[in-house]
């Protein structure tokens, strides 16, 4: 029987490979938090984190996973891709809850120019989304 | 008997905890490469990588390791610290060679403002070092 991390990873990779952001939502805990590249402060809550994840996935071209580390419910998933023709390497540091959903996700990306390009594309849409929610 | 990764990690953590950058040098392969936060291109060679690692360790205050993932000779080490009062979270993605030394090290850090502060402090000293080598 696959364990919690295996089940999560199967569903996660299937959704990401298909760029099926709707299928990511049930993989997030209701109180999920995300440590994103632009801010130290975490963003919280399933709707906001789901929206931001969708934006990031939509914006990074050729998004591909590579090395993967699993230690119980703590995961590290390496990816590469590009934004505006700038190559990038990133990692998702994921903590799963006992229910197998993401409790926290930190996204770290290098190099700095690709991070700037990503933020420049994502931030305006994020601000628009936040403004619309108020 | 501890395996390659265990032996490496013992030596690495001892050197980093003591801020003993000289002891980091023998842990690097001669042809070691580093994927640093500012550039997509790798920097190569033990003297250059050793110098840059020393600068980074010297510049990040309260440098502390946290989660650690090991898969054979592929390692992921999470750290936190601060630069100019800006909190940061980073990860070292390390590939060890068969000899137990670092063959490649990628350093990913968030958030963007802390990366900018780190680059602003490290880049001038790196450029001076490179100019002196020519």
Which range does the strand content of chain A fall in? 35-45%
Strand order of the largest sheet of chain A: 2-1-6-5-4-3
Structural Rg of chain A: 14 Å
pLDDT average of chain A, as an integer?
Answer: 95
Most extensive chain contact? A-B, 33 and 33 residues
Oligomer: homodimer
- The CATH class label of chain A is Alpha Beta
As residue ranges, the low-confidence spans of chain A are: none
Tell me the major beta sheet of chain A: 6 strands, mixed
Distance between the termini of chain A: 44 Å
Enumerate how many helices of chain A there are, as a single number.
3
Question: How many strands of chain A?
Answer: 6
Element-by-element helix/strand order of chain A: HEEHEEEEH
Q: What structural class results from the helix and strand content of chain A?
A: alpha+beta
Look up the CATH topology of chain A.
Answer: Nuclear Transport Factor 2, Chain: A
Q: Which architecture name of chain A does CATH use?
A: Roll
Principal-axis shape of chain A: globular
* Fraction of residues in helix of chain A: 25-40%
């Amino acid at each position: 029987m696959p364990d919690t991390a295996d089940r999560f990873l199967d569903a996660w990779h299937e959704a990401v490979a298909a760029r099926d952001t709707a299928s990511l939502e049930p993989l997030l805990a209701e109180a999920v938090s995300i440590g994103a590249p632009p801010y130290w402060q975490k963003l919280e809550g399933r709707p906001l984190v789901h929206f931001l994840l969708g934006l990031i996935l939509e914006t990074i071209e050729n998004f591909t996973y590579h090395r993967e580390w699993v230690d119980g419910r703590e995961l590290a998933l390496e990816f590469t891709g590009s934004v505006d023709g700038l190559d990038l390497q990133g990692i998702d540091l994921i903590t799963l809850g006992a229910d197998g959903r993401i409790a926290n996700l930190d996204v770290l990306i290098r190099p700095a120019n690709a991070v700037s390009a990503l933020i420049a594309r994502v931030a305006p849409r994020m601000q628009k989304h936040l403004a619309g929610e108020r």
